[in-house]
Amino acid sequence: MRYCKRCCYPENAKPTIIFDAEGVCSGCRYHESREDADINWEERERMLARLLEEAQADARRRGNIYDCIIPISGGKDSHFQTWLMKEKYGMNPLLVAFNHTFNTQAGGRNLENLVEKSGCDLIRITPSPHSVRKLSRFMLKRVGDLTWHYHAGIYTVPFQVSAQMNIPLVIWGEHGYAELTGMFSLKNFVEFTRWTRKQYDMRGLDVADVVKDPDNDIKMTDMAPYLFPSSEEVERVDMRGIYLSNFINWEAKAQTELMMKTWDFAPVTFHRDRTFNLYSHIEDHANEVHDYMKFLKFGYGRGTDAASREIRLGRLTRAEGVELVREYDPVEPKSLATYLDYFELSRQEFMALFDSQREAGIWERGKDGQWVLTDAIHRQETDETHEALKAPLDEADHVFAHHNRALYYNPDNPPEKSGDPRLDEEAATFSVL
Questions:
Q1: Which of 45, 142, 285, 306 shows a CA-CA span of 20 to 30 A to 64?
Q2: Where are the domains positioned within the chain?
Q3: pTM: predicted TM-score of the whole model, two decimal places
Q4: Coil/strand/helix, residue 190
Q5: pLDDT tens across 244-262, in order?
Q6: Residue 136 and residue 142: Cα distance in Å, rounded?
Q7: CB of 23 within 8 A of CB of 389?
């Protein structure tokens, strides 16, 4: 397996990643492009301001109180998107949340905080827990993803609300696929599309595919939150989904620090099983298991994601990132027991689901019949080309610098406890509401 010579991503990273002639991945090149001289961020912010002014004028013509929709979870990005629209651009957004039901206590705390601090109205759609269980169990077996309904819901419900309330503009934060693997160029101003929603977020499946599958008892009544508006509704409302990372130089850490200071967003303070990052995806209880399944299939996980991002941003060396990947990627999360019980599966049955999905050349069966990881980044040698292609290091803002202790877990300098058990203690089970 080839690994990027700058970060820690393997060539089998999902979605598709591309290595250039120097052995540097498209995700790293995308990050480079954010600093290109021909990317004029001041001009892009002016473009955003004009777009939002037009949205406000359009809302007045339609007789709308709200001039945009912001899909939220309550996490760091939700806080920043809402703050930016309210405080900098004077927008009156309607917050729309799809409640996937696998919530953490920290997520509940931060969602409540966001609504309180922003003063915005919130519509939160909660699907039937019984339907979620059926759908999640089916998708676990069908595509190896217990969180399929997350992506289907969060990329559908805001547009359902858009159709119902005649609010055309939906504002997303970061374009995740571009940031991680460089799937799209920053110069393309990629916007939300129904095709991307189905092809990538919903694993190529749509509602009809699920309902007609004979291997489940899922009915159309279970799928109401995942029915995307018709083409006629999209055209009638003139729906548009934009990504703020096309218009501002998106940097999650700086934005998180701003939200901690101004709107009291709170990271967790406990050691997480599968990442050293304390502020990202902390509202999602199933994330640890979801990420572990990625490791079982492709041989890498959120340790790789987090380390690669920090390497690209100059807060880790590649060698340090490799050690963090070694430490975090193989860990079986404690929360797995909760989901085995939830799905009524034994650990053996769960592991068997991935037998046909393991990446060839990364996983092999040993003589005892157990799967063995045969290749990993920490087993490969580095050479002078890695040194020549390394990202510049900002030692003053190193991940494990003292001033970053609340954002990244360092066993030698752990974060201070907040005094709030929702942030200080990892809950074994999830909360539906």
A1: 45
A2: 41-246, 267-424
A3: 0.93
A4: coil
A5: 999 999 999 999 999 999 9
A6: 10
A7: yes
